[in-house]
Each structure stands twice: as C-alpha cells, then as structure tokens.
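Q: Two folds, back to back.
A: First:
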Amino acid sequence: MSEMKIQCPECKQSFDVPEELMGNPVECGACQHPFELTDEHIDKFSMRYFPGEKANGLEAFSKKTPEMSTEAEVHFRTAAYDQEVDPNAIMPLGPKRLLAIFVGISLMGLVITFFVLGNGELGAMTDITNDKRWVLAGFSAFLGSLLIIFGFRKYRIFGVIFALILAGGVCSMPIIYPEQLSPVALEYDSSLEVNEPTEIDPEAELLAYKLGLGYSTVEAKITEAANPQRVIAVALTRVKPAHLDTIKDYLARALKTEEIPRVYPNRQLNGIPCILLVYLNSRLSLGEAAMVIRKFGTVTAIRPKLQIVEVLVDPDTFKNSKSDVLVDESNAKFYQENLEELKHIDQERQLAAIQRLSNTQKFSLRSDIAKQLRALLALDSFEHQAATVEALIHWDRKDQDNASESVVSQARRMAVSKKVIPLTYLNYLIEQKVEGVGDILLYAWMKERVVHESTLIRAGKLAELALIEMLPELEPIELDSAASVLRKIGTPDALPALLLAYESASGDVKKSLKATIDEIKSRE
C-alpha cells in the first residue's frame, strides 16, 4: 500500500497517509480538524526528489567534473564567542532542583491542608495554641520558600514571586483558623440520675436550661436554615466518647441527611454533662426522629418548640456479643446472636454478621433473617447492599420468600448508578429464570461484553428476546458481539431482526450477521 504526505490546512502539520484515502474525509491527528482529502492538501515540497534520489546507487549523478573558478581569493572572518556564559542559565532544571520545588510546594500545601481539615471541634489542630500555630506556619513558609527559590534558580524572579504567594497563604492560616479548645473526655458515671422532664414555665428556669445546653448555637442554625423545621438537635447524656461516632453515623443515615452533624461537647442538661448533636437537613419530623433514636437509648423528653430530643444513651446497646458464639455455627445461639447483629446501629457490625450468614450450612430462623436482610436492602443509606444481596441469595427459599425481587431491585439500582453488577446476581437471575430482567442482562453485557457473552448464552431465550429488541440500536462492535451470542442461542424468532440488521451492516459485522443467519436457518 503506497503512501503520500499531506498537510493539514488548519495547523500545517504534515502526515503520511495511504493514497486510497484520496477523496475521503479525514481528521488531523494534531488539531482534530476534519477536511476532505484532495490534491491541494498534498505536501508538494516533501514530494520533490533531488538529483539521484530515485536511483538505488550513485549512478544517477553526473560523472562530469564541474568547472570551478579559483581566481577569487577567499577571505575568512574570525568569530568571537562569549566566554562568560553561565551554564545554569541555559541548562534545564536538574532533578535536585525539581525535587526541591516539589518538596517546597508539598510542604506548604500540607500545612494548609492540615489547618483546613484539622480545625474541627475534634480535629487534629484542636488544643494547639495560637503561638504554636504561628511557629508552625512561619517555619513551614520559610523552609518551603527557600526550597522553591533554590529550585527555580533559572527563573529566580518567578520563583521568588511564587514562593511569596504560597508563604502568604500559609501565614494566613493562624488568622483564618485561630486556637480552638477540645472537650474534656466524658467519663461514664453510673450514679448519675436523669430527672424526668419538668414543665419549663418560669423564664429563669428556661434561661438556665438554654444556657446549660448552649441553645444559642441551635437557635443560630434554625435561623440560618432554608427550612428551619428540618433542624433537629439531639442531647445525649451518659454517652461514652468511644460510641459517639457510631451514634453520629447512625443518626445521619436514619434522619436521611447527607450533612455531617455539628457536635457541641461540654454541655449541661439539667446539671448532667451531655453532648449536643445538631442535624441541619433531617427528612424526618421530630417525632419520627425520636422513634429511630430509641434504638440506642431512652428518649427522656421531646421539646417541639426548641426542636430538641433528649436521650439517655443505653451502653448495653454497644456491648459486643461473645465472639465465639458469633462464629460458631454449632452454637445454639449462633443464629439469634447474628440476627441481633443485623439489627445493630453500627454498619460494620451488620456487615460482619452478613458475611458470617453468607457461609452457613444450616438455615435456622430463616424467615426472620431473610426479613431483616430485606429491611437492610430497603435502606438507601445502607452501604453494604451488594453483600446483603449475596447473603439473601444464600438464604433464599425455593418454595417461598424468593429473593428475586430484592436482587432485581438492587441490580437496577446499580445499573442506574453505572456500577458493575456482580456475576452472583446474574447467575441467580438466570438460575431462577426470573422474567423481565433482560435489560439487566444487557446492561451487564454492554458494560463488559467479553466477560458476559457467556452469561447471555446461559440465559438462553431470555437473552435472545432482549437482544432482538436491542439490535437496531447497537453499535457495530456491539452488533458483532450480539451476532456471536445469537449464533449459539438464536431461534427463527430472531431472523427478522437479524435480516434487517444485515441489510444496513457492512464489513466484518455483515459477515458475522450472515454467519448467524445461516446457522439459525440450518437448525430449523
């Protein structure tokens, strides 16, 4: 195949292309400019041949000795070179200087990130005093600037300006994020008693209640909120610091809010130490919030006017079950204890129970466990949906309580989220011969064609019907794969769609469709 050199009319870049492309539309590989290839795009300068270029040897060159005149005297001028050129001014930056620039930028960037992310109420910067913050910012700014200026020796002015900008950003951190003190760790005191809520009628008592609780922060959040009714404050008493993160995460999921709660420690609720959590965008009402809170404690009061729920945390909620019982299937309490773990508010403990129940040999408490697995699947906020589906498949009963509906629902959720559907789901749907899931099978196949061609073949008629409907919309490469699948599972029902696709196809795809049509006809 002979080639010719052409020139892009837009960017003037030259390329070698086959002569067969003459008269066809092409696209520049440098600037992506599309144009139709004609004679005017041929790079005629590069097509020129110089004397002897077409010959294999030197025979094409003339052997005649040219006449030369040597009458004129040749004069030469002495060239002077600058002997004081600094090689650092013309040489590229070496690896040491590049490393110095990288370390300097990374150092100051890391300090800025440390200030920004570590300045929460329980963050890494808590309890660091202002003078120490200034020392940290100043030292990192000074060291980082030196490294950057050293690295930019060739571009010294630029390096100085760039270093000053970054150093200014670092030095502004102690001003933007000043000193913040952390709460004192709360100790669990079993002697504390929570009094039943009393009517707060006198203004003095109400004021004392608000001051102890630090209610001004809640009022500010309610005032600032676009929907004030969605702000819910939860006052936790008798809560251990080790359990706080679990409670925060559970309430965020249960209240269906995507925002991180505001945490205000060292508060007082009727003279008892408490921690105040404020959720800004709850999808549940105050009464509904109280219902989900009962999973980890006793609701001692609901104050609609203040939008506060008071909770006495039950430490027994967070006690770990005996590990030997949870992992020993022969133990009489194995299934009951793992069922209780499925109901826990800690998702990690729920996941551990799901994984244990996915490998059981027996199926005690089958209905209760399957019901709880379905309840977890119904929660959009539950993070371990895939593992739950696999456990539900394992616990599926063939005669009743079939898990197919849950599997189909979860698979469609994953398709909407553009996620890869596990092969476990697809195998289950095929084995159970679940109807109406052709779209799920096709989604998985289009996501990973090579992997799931065999999956469609195992699906048989279900996959055939879905492919027949989809054939007119497939791209050539997908059409070729579909033809390969239908060649093995296709019936005469697929012939009309295949013949229609064959008429509009071309090249190898057309040959593949023809082979499929012939194979199906031979099976009639």
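A: Second:
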Amino acid sequence: LKLYQENVASEAHRTHFLEIVCIALPGPLSVSWRAEASSQAISPIESELMMLPRCSRFYLKQYLWLKNPGRVDLVSDVEYTLGGRAHQIKVTSPMVPLRPDGGWGSSPETLRPSDYFDGNPATPKVAQDHCPEEITLVTAAMDLMDEWEAPQRHWTVYADGLRRLLLLDCAAVVFVDSKIKDYISLDVKSKVQVEVLDREHLEDLSFFPRMQALRNSSWKGFQWNWGKVSESALYLSLVLLKPYLIARAARMAKSRSTTLLWIDSVPSCLHCMEDSALSTSWLHSLGMDGRIFATIYRGTSTLCRRKNADAEGGLPCKDLPAYTVKGSFFAMRAEQALWLEREYDNVMDEMLLRGFLLTEEYYLSAVTKRFPDKFVLYDRSNNPLEDDLECIPHCMLATKNPKPFFTFPPSGSQVHLDNCTLQWDVENKEDDILVFVGLRVLEDSLHDADHGAREWIEVRYTSARHMNFQLNPNTLYEAQVSVYPPYFASTATTKFRTLPREEYE
C-alpha cells in the first residue's frame, strides 16, 4: 500500500483528502484514520471514510478548520487490515492557506513544490516502445489558482499530471501557460510539441464577451453548475476550448492516421497507463474506426425531469440526450477532430444566442444527439455498482490489464436452472484478485425487453471464479463481472435465458 495526500489547504474551512493507493486487493480493506495537529492550529470538525472505487484510489475525507494563516503540519496515522494482518502507515502533510488576501497573508508559494511531491509515488518507469507511433496525446494545463477564493487544487497538481503523461513517451501536443512550461522542462521531450496558452489568449476568444454577459447570479445558481466553473470565467473558457485544442493538435499532427487522445492533466487516473505498453485496440474493438470515442455518465437525466420540457434549470433539455458526455477523455482521428470542431462551434454559437451558457460536456452532448452515427459512446456508469468509473478509458489503453471473461453460460445461450453456476476467469491476473459480480433481469414473463434493463438485483464481491444465484425460469438475464481496482475498466458481460418451467417436466 502507498499513501499520500494533497498537501495544501485552500481556505480556512478545508475539506482534507487522504488518498490510499493499492495495487491489487487480495480481499476487503478496512481502514481507520486519525489526524493529529496542534489544537491551536487546526480543529477537526468531522471525519468520514469514503471507500470510493476510483481505479486504485480510496479516499479518506476529513473536514478541518485552520485557525491561523501559517503552515500546519498534519500527521495522518492510518491503520488498516489486509489479508487478516494489521498494518500502520504514518505520513506528515504540510498544509498552508492559498488565499493571499483577506487576512490570510500567506502566498501560494509558501507551499514548496517539494512539499507537494514528497510522499507521492515514485516517478514511473516505462518500458521501451511503451507507446505506439499512432497515438498522440493532447492536454492542457494552466495556473488559475487566484481565480478562486478556494482553489480546488494547487497548480503543481496539473503540472505533475502533465509530467506523468509525458513520461509515457508518446507523441504529444500540450497547451500550457508559460509558468507550467518552465516548471516541467518540456524541452527535454523531443516528441512533444508545445503551444503556449496564457490568460490573455483566453480573454481574446471570440465567445468570451458573450460568455461574460451570461455569467449572472441566476446562471451561477443552477444545480448543474459546478462552483469552480461558475466562479472563474477563465476556467470556463479553458474547458470550453477542449474541442478547439484537439483540432489544433490534429492540424499539427505529423500523420493524419494518428489517434488523438484528449486526456485531462489531473493525475488521478494515469497510474494504470504506466504499468504496461499502450494500445488503442480496445477503442477500435468498440467500433471507433471512422468515429469519435467518448465516455458518458448519467447526468442530464437527473436534471431534465419534466417530460417534453424545452428547458429546465438552465439546460436546453430538448437539445440534450439523457446522458452527459464526460470531457476528461475522448479519442478520434485527425479528420474527425476537424469535423467535431466545426459542429461543436455551431452548437455553442447557437446555444449562446439562445441564452444557454453551458460547459463543454453539455455542448458535446448536444453534438452527439444531432449526429449519433458519428460517435461511439461508452457508459462508464453501466456497472453493478452504478458508479461513474472515471478511469475506465485510461485503464483500457494498457495492454496488460487483467481481463475477465465468462466461461459459462455463453452469451446468447439457454440454460437449465439446475445447471446455472456462473463461471469466469481472468487473463493477466494476479493471484487472488478480487472481482465484483452483478446480475439483473432484462426480460421475464411480466416485463419484456422494451422496458429496458432493470436494477441490478445482486452485487457481490469475491475472489472465487464461480457463483450461484437464485434464478427464475423463462427469464432473460445479464451477468457482469468486473475486476476490482485498479483495473475497474476490465468488465465482461454475458446474457442468457433460463428455460421455461415446462422444459423441466
């Protein structure tokens, strides 16, 4: 187990995250956490254990109150049980306020880069020929910390993510401001093309004046509007630029056949790309050839609830699909990137004229609804836990991820209730790797397939390779097995029908 944490406090009332990084869990993990600091410097308000299965990440959250503007060294003492044995890790985390005004005299630079990187996983080593020539990474990073009263992350987080991306040794086009360019020494990477993107470039964008005119108090209060987006015009401009930036990268690419991968520079999902050679074969197996690959999650359907409503809560519901496209990862060839730029620009221009200022995710979602045949959409929340598995596309680019597959029943088969033990195996597996298994009804005597899949009726964790479920006759089932973190993306599905009752007599 490795343990590290975000070593900054962005405001007096701080939500502090402790991050636990696991390789492969041989069994359930139980954790207790105690944070220590001078009572004159910090007051714990509330602690909460968040076992969030986000690749190999598990988070412990604590709400803290910093009592003074100086640096605080927070000691976290983590006790955990793994495989029946008790372990303990202790780590010291320096925390400083990031607000340079309002009586909090510390500058953001009070936190040294060495403070942030101390305790983080070592710089990954990648094998020779780790990245094939047909992959070009595209990303962006800027220091916008002073745009927020309470910054979400220190700018070195984005710089660290960018540096880890470049260590993959892929061809890359990166859009960074001058500060981050100097910090990570991009000139040492011959495969990297650097485009400087500073604040004044964002303010000169053609849509910036219209965007500013719509950023009023009503707009900032919409439920879908994340606080960091509503607070900073520059940050909103940056995320809206993503399709334009990947099109610029397409024009710069040395080969039109290259696969452009937009990857946000936040490092939380990058570790699973560092362990083995990369490949786009998974994307192409889903039918990406000639189309744009994007991932989706269940967002819009929870906000647009009134049937046939043209608009609701600041969203043009009639123009949006039930899902929301996630802007942190998408893939396409150069030709598709130029097409996307054009159609995305048309959608955004039209929406702004109608008074709908949105993020890139909603504009991209509108494009996918208008041109469904142009996209391959992967639902990251279509799993028995129904969690938004953000790291799925990153993990599936790695060629050595454990891959589960069902050995029984075969997909499309009919089975007898007396002989219906689900069986599976895992390629590239480690011993005793943990999986979770889900089962749901697709169609039975009361509900036909037109009603769609219903809720997962069973979700179980196991290290076994077989499992029995209570099944009904004459029912179409779907079963799914997924490998537990850090390989959550690896999922296998089978669909089978149990025989009618008269077949047993």
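Q: And?
A: The chain has three domains: 2-111, 135-393, 402-504.
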